[in-house]
Amino acid sequence: MKLYQRFTVFAVCAVAALASACAANAPSGGGDGKQFVVGYSQSNNAEPYRAQLNLQLQYYVKQHPDMKLLPITDAHQDSATQVSQVQAFIQQKVDALIVSPNEPAPLAAAVQQACAAKIPVIILDRSVNTDCYSAFIGGDNYAIGKLAGQAAVQALPNGGNVVELRGILSDQPQVDRDKGFRDAVEGHNISIIEQQEAKWLKANATATMQQWLAKGDKIDLVYAHNDDMALGAQLAIQGAGKAGQIQIIGIDGLAIPTGGIRAVQNGQLLTTFVYPTCAEQAVDTLEKLLHQQPVDKKQVLPTTQVTKENAAQLYQEYDMSGKVGG
Fold it and tell me: Which residues form the signal peptide (predicted)?
């Protein structure tokens, strides 16, 4: 089965004055003891996936003495805050910038400003509404959503009722994970009877799931766009005395004690899918950009389905606790 699909190329820079900057701009400095300063604008540290990404990025940057990572900024899911944080990095004249956009549209102008300032920009995990950046690194969310849908079809061979916990509705990963899932379950007598934006957060998912359970409708399976929401739903299901009666599918597959891989191992989740943090690839790409070497503008990373059979092996493969302490 093919797990990859190419991401659509985003719209070209709308501002003509920035057109010349829409390339992989290398910093002007460098060489002989120069330490390149890197800024990273994170969308929301409260999500376990992003907290782990931060730890891993810090670890990999430390392997390069010529790089200095400034304190990672946290937008707390507020796009206006993130725009200000990106602009602050630009004013500091960092040598390179990494951005995990909270939303694609609001961050476009700030990324274009970085391009105009000839600062290489890596877009990590989530898209932005401009192609004025040096590299995009992320997973194929449509393919992952489709695999999740196929897992649901397998779990419900006679059909059934599904509820869907969605991320931030304006995020492209949410859009793709939803579409992939729906395309996969179409024609299999599976009905999505409830759907709600839970903003990627466990507490939101727990509250939403409690409301759905209180309605009394038959629910056979929960599809959550990340493991944090999946485990939030699991708390509500357990609290309602329905543990084991409703299957749960998540996405992220973090190799941490509270992550999706362990949750599959202990039966809290039916399955999840590894969504790479992209940290190692981001630092490898940074190293090339900072030394004026060519990089692939689109880097789409693969996924792996986590099952009870392979969970232990995958946990061992992705576990970085001995390196990052998480």
Answer: 1-26
CA neighbours closer than 13 Å in the CB half-sphere of residue 169: 4
Q: What are phi and psi of 162, to 5 degrees?
A: -120, 140
In DSSP terms, 268 is beta-bridged to none
Q: Is the pTM of this model over 0.85?
A: yes
Could you give phi then psi for residue 208, rounded to 5 degrees? Answer: -65, -45
CA angle 98, 101, 106 (to 5 degrees): 125
Q: Among 282, 313, 294, which residue's Cα sits nearest to residue 59?
A: 282
Residue with tokens 């003509």: 16
Distance between alpha carbon 119 and the CA centroid of its chain, in Å?
Answer: 23
Give the distance, in angstroms, between the CA of residue 251 and the centroid of all CA atoms in the same chain. Answer: 9
Give the span between the Cα atoms of 184 and 129, in whole angstroms. Answer: 27
pLDDT, tens digit only, all 326 positions of the chain: 333 333 333 333 333 333 333 434 444 444 456 899 999 999 999 999 999 999 999 999 999 999 999 999 999 999 999 999 999 999 999 999 999 999 999 999 999 999 999 999 999 999 999 999 999 999 999 999 999 999 999 999 999 999 999 999 999 999 999 999 999 999 999 999 999 999 999 999 999 999 999 999 999 999 999 999 999 999 999 999 999 999 999 999 999 999 999 999 999 999 999 999 999 999 999 999 999 999 999 999 999 999 999 999 999 999 999 898 65
Measured between alpha carbons, how far is 38 from 194 in angstroms, rounded to an integer?
A: 42
Give me the CATH topology for the region 141-274. Rossmann fold (3.40.50)
Packed helices 227-239 and 202-215: angle between N→C axes, nearest 10 degrees: 40
CATH number of 36-139+277-301: 3.40.50.2300
Q: Which residue, chain included where needed, has tokens 């000839």?
A: 118
